[in-house]
Write a structure and sequence with these properties.
- Helix content is about 50%, strand content about 10%.
- The chain is of the alpha/beta class.
- It has a 6-stranded parallel sheet.
- The protein starts with a helix and ends in a 9-residue tail after the last helix.
- The longest helix has 28 residues, at about 5-30.
- Strand 2, helix 4 and strand 3 form a beta-alpha-beta unit.
- The structure holds alpha-D-psicofuranose (PSV) and manganese (II) ion (MN).
- Manganese (II) ion binds next to loops.
- Manganese (II) ion binds near residues 217, 252 and 325.
Length: about 425
């Protein structure tokens, strides 16, 4: 299904005057404080986040999966779903594929469809955390770190295949996340596992096209519970440095032990020019993969504050690959993604409001109270009119979620696809 411009604009018309009032009030207020509203709106309008192809159906937990009706059952349908979200939010102009779940049958047709929906191919993801049908070797005891050379070689070859698939689609990066680790003390030799991983990553790196990047994702635990080979940003950073200048660290918000200062990690990596990718989600306890901003919106704002600082002050760091990496067990996946995109835009807008010069001055004067005031004043500003204005500028919906419901997208998808379709993914 496709949302037409007529549908969008008719709906916007009803909400327009209310929005205009709210927007004028806010921008009057902001300009009194020297804020360049126009610039912020342009930055918001340009900010695009990739949707992972595996997040369009219902996710599961270890105890079960409750299917969501009308799920996409092909890559084409996944693209169409992202097309719907992008038409409404104008923030989801990219897809991130997971191989082998999403190997295209007809590359040209897929590329054409994506272009027609204004969707680009962001990072491609390899999967060596599951054994594939008819695979000769198993990843039960690791992939790039496995003590068996045959398993390592198979995992390396898979990553090279993923690069080749991504290259045909116009992707420019691969994300490597390894489940490799151990669940029991003594099960694995830490040094051997790390050395194998380093050598395997270097082999993959050799196959990166000139204009590609490799993102190395870390995670402290899960699926194994005693040790993980790439457990933290330091390990990822070290491996990226060993591989070379096209290798970077990827931060996934859910991949930290409780209370980790993620904003400081972001800041350190950007200073070193090594933050390449970013996965958004939210969590209370672990890698909960729930809606962005649903649990710790202030933490998200503080992280964005460092991201904005880095984007403004660290030319040594490349443009980031942004992606939502969440799982939708209870909500309609598309509604959940719309909420996540809104939360991302809100946190970004608030971070853009922080007056970095004033903050620097207050830091210089050791005025701790004022430092806090500057951050919290930005955080407490209701920036939703700015986010709406940015969407309007790109012909998106003023209120994406309301509009999604009023068009009855899910009902339509169920009518087209049926109740029992199941999307590939976890
Ligand atoms: C692992 O938890 C992860 O964050 C990686 O990015 C995977 O590719 C993704 O989730 C889906 O399993
Ligand atoms: Mn992730």
């Amino acid at each position: 299904m496709k949302i037409s411009q007529d549908q969008l604009q008719n709906y916007n018309k009803e909400q327009l005057s209310l929005h205009q009032n709210q927007f004028e009030n806010l921008s009057d207020n902001l300009s009194k404080h020297g804020v360049d509203t126009e610039k912020i709106i342009n930055q918001l309008a340009d900010f695009q986040v990739a949707i992972p192809s595996w997040a369009l159906g219902a996710g599961g937990t270890r105890f079960g999966r409750f299917s969501y009706q009308g799920e996409p059952s092909s890559l084409e349908q996944k693209l169409e779903d992202i097309g719907v979200i992008h038409a409404l939010t104008q923030t989801a102009g990219a897809i991130s594929l997971h191989i082998p779940w999403d190997i295209p049958e007809d590359y040209n047709a897929i590329k054409e469809l994506a272009t027609s929906l204004d969707i680009k191919f962001d990072a491609v993801n390899s999967n060596t955390f599951q054994d594939q049908k008819n695979a000769k070797e198993s990843y039960k005891f690791g992939s790039l770190s496995n003590t068996s050379k045959a398993s390592r070689d198979q995992a390396i070859a898979h990553n090279i295949d993923v690069i080749n698939i991504g290259d045909k689609l116009g992707s420019k990066s691969i994300t490597v996340w390894l489940a490799d680790g151990s669940s029991f003390p003594g099960q694995s030799n830490f040094q051997t596992a790390l050395s194998h991983t380093q050598d395997s990553l270097k082999d993959i790196y050799k196959h990166l096209p000139e204009d590609w990047k490799m993102f190395i994702e870390y995670k402290p635990y899960e699926p194994y519970f005693y040790s993980t080979v790439i457990q933290d940003w330091g390990t990822s950073f070290m491996l990226a440095n060993e591989c070379g200048e096209k290798a970077y660290t990827l931060v996934d918000l859910g991949h930290h032990l409780p209370n980790t200062n993620i904003e400081q990690i972001v800041s350190t990596l950007m200073l070193k020019g090594k933050l390449g990718g970013f996965h958004f989600n939210d969590s209370k306890y672990g890698d909960d993969d729930i809606t962005v901003g649903s649990i710790k919106p202030y933490a998200l704002f503080l992280i964005f504050n460092e991201l904005v600082y880095g984007m403004q002050n660290n030319p040594q760091n490349p443009d980031l690959s942004w992606m939502i990496d969440a799982s939708h067990n209870l909500k309609d996946p598309l509604e959940d993604l719309i909420q996540s995109l809104e939360a991302i835009q809100i946190a970004y807008a608030k971070a853009l409001l922080v007056n970095q010069d004033d903050l620097k001055q207050a830091q210089q004067n050791h005025d701790v109270t004022l430092c806090q005031e500057i951050l919290q004043n930005a955080y407490l500003t209701d920036v939703r009119p700015l986010v709406k204005e940015a969407r309007l500028k790109r012909n998106g919906a003023l209120n994406p979620l309301q509009q999604y419901r009023s068009i009855a997208v899910r009902k339509q998808l169920i009518k087209e696809r049926g109740k029992n379709t199941v999307a590939t993914g976890l």
